[in-house]
Design a protein that fits this description.
Layout (H helix, E strand, L loop, with lengths): L11 H14 L15 E4 L1 H4 L15 H13 L2 H4 L3 E3 L25 H11 L3 E7 L16 H11 L3 E5 L5 H17 L5 E4 L1 H4 L9 H7 L2 E3 L8 H13 L1 H4 L8 E3 L12 H13 L4 E3 L8 H7 L2 H7 L8 E5 L4 E7 L5 E7 L6 E6 L10 E6 L5 E6 L3 E6 L4 E10 L9 E3 L5 E3 L2
Parallel strand pairs: 1-2, 1-8, 2-3, 3-4, 4-5, 5-6, 6-7
Antiparallel strand pairs: 9-10, 10-11, 11-16, 12-15, 13-14, 13-16, 17-18
Helix pairs in contact: 3-5, 6-7, 12-13, 12-14
Subcellular location: Lysosome
Enzyme class: hydrolase
Function: Removes terminal alpha-N-acetylgalactosamine residues from glycolipids and glycopeptides. Required for the breakdown of glycolipids.
Length: about 450
């Protein structure tokens, strides 16, 4: 479970070439589209704005072109885009209630008067990408026209002509048989358009998320990312229920993830109403260690500085976007209600999350890297992901303590300075006041 074994002393160019080769060869199965080699990052309307279509009473918050134009501006101007938050994704309730005379999906004419193509062009001009929502069934979950099996190719072509870059395909109002036929058919139809479109499917969530009903080998060949479990709600209980399900089933889920194909525990709700500051830091760290897509669902026009700081943590994003694409696992569950999660990273680095489920007071947790199955006789430099503080020369056998706030986390990034019987050439670039970040 520990950090990958060192491959000997090598120059930065050789190492980055190796990582690049791994990155390019691993995701060949996923849709054969070469997309989503790291977890997609961006913004998604659903959790925060739902199916609010009353633009007369609530023009700023309804599902309309204005909402997406304004969120695109925020992604482009407030530092999100440069950090990797590139996708601006429309969810349900965008379309008219009927298809047009030719059977095509059309946006609601009052709420999207200029059409999706104009919105896509605007988003692209801002250096961003546009996502849209469909449903493999007679109706979407919100009651708008769905994509029945006879419409799959037509709708894929429509989305491509509009300039869409990601499709989230839900599964309301369809049978298991229709989903088994329709989800792979949409993958083929998207590829056939010739436009690179990341494919997010909700297929496993409608089949209980687990074998034998869900075949993750097939899923990884069909979809770039997929929803496995329940929709997230704006509450800590919801975050914990998702985390519990992912942890309980990690032996099934963890091997299915990798470059081009990701488990999706649903949106980041940081910046909304349901999470405390500590809980917000916890969701960000836990989603990162699970190699989850980072799709925010909050109002970027009014987001607080503290929520923005959590979501824009550079080292956190670097860990989430690690090119090896290995999903982390829970490796310790203590009677004291402390849990430890580990994610192996490229260049023999690792991320550790110490998570407290306690509700009383800060807890002093003592352990060692040896107890967490790191290689014997290794030495690490450690950076606290949130505080930036650095611990130098931490040996595998050294005992250490961390103070974890209730429902909070301490997250570490560990980088080897010496590995057993093998020198390790460290390549790093200094960032003033921010500690170090490895060159990937």
């Amino acid at each position: 479970l520990g950090a990958p074994a060192a491959v000997g002393t090598m120059g930065a160019a050789v190492l980055s070439g190796l990582v690049l080769t791994l990155t390019l060869t691993l995701p060949a199965l996923a849709l054969e589209n070469g997309l989503a080699l790291t977890p997609p990052m961006g913004w998604l309307a659903w959790e925060r704005f739902r199916c609010n279509v009353d633009c007369r009473a609530d023009p700023r918050n309804c599902i309309s072109e204005m909402l997406f134009f304004e969120m695109a501006d925020r992604l482009a101007e407030d530092g999100w885009r440069e950090l990797g938050y590139k996708y601006i994704n429309i969810d349900d309730c965008w379309s008219a209630k009927q298809r047009d005379a030719a059977g095509r999906l059309v946006p609601d004419p009052e709420r999207f008067p200029r059409g999706i193509k104009v919105l896509a062009d605007y988003v692209h001009a801002r250096g961003l990408k546009l996502g849209i929502y469909g449903d493999l069934g007679t109706l979407t979950c919100g009651g708008y026209p769905g994509t029945t099996l006879d419409r799959v190719k037509q709708d894929a072509q429509t989305f491509a002509e509009w300039g869409v870059d990601m499709l989230k395909l839900d599964g309301c109002y369809s049978s298991g048989e229709e989903q088994a036929e329709g989800y792979p058919e949409m993958a083929r139809a998207l590829n056939a358009t010739g436009r690179p479109i990341v494919y997010s499917c909700s297929w496993p969530a409608y089949e209980g998320g687990l074998p034998p009903k869900v075949n993750y080998t097939i899923l990884a060949e069909v979809c770039n990312l997929w929803r496995n479990y329940d929709d997230i709600q704006d509450s800590w209980d919801s975050v914990l229920s998702i985390l519990d399900w992912f942890s309980a089933n990690q032996d099934v889920l963890q091997p299915a993830a990798g470059p081009g194909h990701w488990n999706d525990p649903d949106m980041l709700i940081i910046g909304n109403f349901g999470l405390s500051y500590e809980q917000s830091r916890s969701q960000m760290a836990l989603w990162t260690v699970m190699a989850a897509p980072l799709l925010m669902s909050t109002d970027l026009r009014t987001i607080s500085p503290s929520a923005k700081e959590i979501l824009q943590n550079r080292l956190m994003i670097q860990i989430n976007q690690d090119p090896l694409g290995i999903q982390g696992r829970r490796i310790v569950k203590e009677k004291s209600h402390i849990e430890v999660f580990l994610r192996p990273l490229s260049q023999a680095a690792s991320a550790l999350v110490f998570f407290s489920r306690r509700t009383d007071m800060p807890f002093l947790y003592t352990t060692s890297l040896a107890k967490l199955h790191f290689p014997e006789d290794a030495v690490y430099e450690v950076q606290d992901v949130y505080s930036g503080k650095i611990i130098s020369g931490l040996k595998t056998g050294d005992s250490f303590s961390v103070v974890i706030n209730p429902s909070g986390v301490v997250m570490w990034y560990l980088y080897p300075v010496a590995l057993p019987a093998q020198p390790w050439h460290i390549v790093r670039q200094e960032a003033p006041g921010e500690g170090f970040y490895p060159v990937l």
